[in-house]
Amino acid sequence: MNQKNHTVFPSNISLTIKREDLIHPFISGNKYRKLKYNLLQAKAENQETLLTFGGAFSNHIAAVAYAGKESGFKTIGIIRGDELIDKIEGNPTLKFAQENGMQLEFVSREDYRLKSEKDFLDNLKQEFGDFYLVPEGGTNELAVRGCEEILTPEDSVFDYVCCAVGTGGTIAGIINSALPNQKVLGFPALKGDFLKDEIRIFAKNENWKLITDYHFGGYGKVNLELITFINQFFDENQVPLDPIYTGKMVFGVIDLIMKKYFPENSKILLIHTGGLQGIKGMNMKLRNKNLPIIKSDV
C-alpha cells in the first residue's frame, strides 16, 4: 500500500510511503519478504527446525519466532550476549519470541562473532540436530528474491526509491527490481562504508548510492532530535516510524530535500520496512534516560 505524504515540500517534490509495515502484524515489512522463500525452501528440504541469530531487540528474532510457529517449524534463536540469560521477562522482544515457541540460547559476544564459521555451526548441529539456517538479519539469495517483490508496476512513476539499510538484503532486492531510470538511495543504520561490498554480492545493477550521514552515532543510537522528529512525523501523518531503521531514513530524506539534494519535481518513494516491535524496547531505554518516548500505535 502506497500512502501519499501531504506535506508541501520545496521545488514541488513529493513523498510517498510504501507501507510494508502493514503486511502482517508480527512478520511485517522486509522480514516478511526475506522469510517468504526461505520458509518455502525449508519445507522443500523437509526441515523441521529453523535456527537463526540476533541481538536483544532484534526484529528478525521476533519475526522468525512467529513465522516458525505459524508455519509449523521449531525455532532456535542464538542471542548475542550471555548476560541476557536471566533478563527475558524484562525484554519485550525476547519474551515475545519465547512465548511463540522459540528456544533461546545465549552466547558471549566473542562467540557470537563466530556465527558464520563452519566449526561454530557444526557445533550447533551437534547440540541441536539438523536445522535450516537463516542468517542474522535474514539476508541470503532467497531473501533478496523476496525483496525484489517490494516494488510493483505502480511504482514506476517514482524517480527515487529510498530505504534503510541493515544487512543489505532489502536494498539489493530493490536495486534488482528498480527501473533503469530510478535511483535507489540507501540509508545505513550502521557506521561506515563497508556495506557497499555486502550489497554488491546480491545487487545486479549500479543505479544506487548509500547516504551514510544519518546513522545518529551508530546502530541503535538515538538522540532527542531524532525522537522529536519521529513523534512529529507520527502526529502529522499517523505513520509510526521505528528509531533504528526507517525513522533515520525518513529524517535523512527530508533533510536532503531541505538541502536541495533532489532535483525539482522529484517523486520520492520511501520504503517503510517495519521494525515497529522494537519501539517497546527502545522506550524502556529512553525512560531510563529521562528522554521522551517514541509514539506509535502498536
Automatic annotation (TrEMBL):
<feature type="active site" description="Nucleophile">
    <location>
        <position position="58"/>
    </location>
</feature>
<keyword id="KW-0663">Pyridoxal phosphate</keyword>
<dbReference type="InterPro" id="IPR001926">
    <property type="entry name" value="TrpB-like_PALP"/>
</dbReference>
<feature type="modified residue" description="N6-(pyridoxal phosphate)lysine">
    <location>
        <position position="31"/>
    </location>
</feature>
<feature type="domain" description="Tryptophan synthase beta chain-like PALP">
    <location>
        <begin position="13"/>
        <end position="274"/>
    </location>
</feature>
<comment type="similarity">
    <text>Belongs to the ACC deaminase/D-cysteine desulfhydrase family.</text>
</comment>
<protein>
    <submittedName>
        <fullName>Pyridoxal-phosphate dependent enzyme</fullName>
    </submittedName>
</protein>
<dbReference type="GO" id="GO:0019148">
    <property type="term" value="F:D-cysteine desulfhydrase activity"/>
</dbReference>
<dbReference type="Pfam" id="PF00291">
    <property type="entry name" value="PALP"/>
</dbReference>
<dbReference type="InterPro" id="IPR036052">
    <property type="entry name" value="TrpB-like_PALP_sf"/>
</dbReference>
<dbReference type="InterPro" id="IPR027278">
    <property type="entry name" value="ACCD_DCysDesulf"/>
</dbReference>
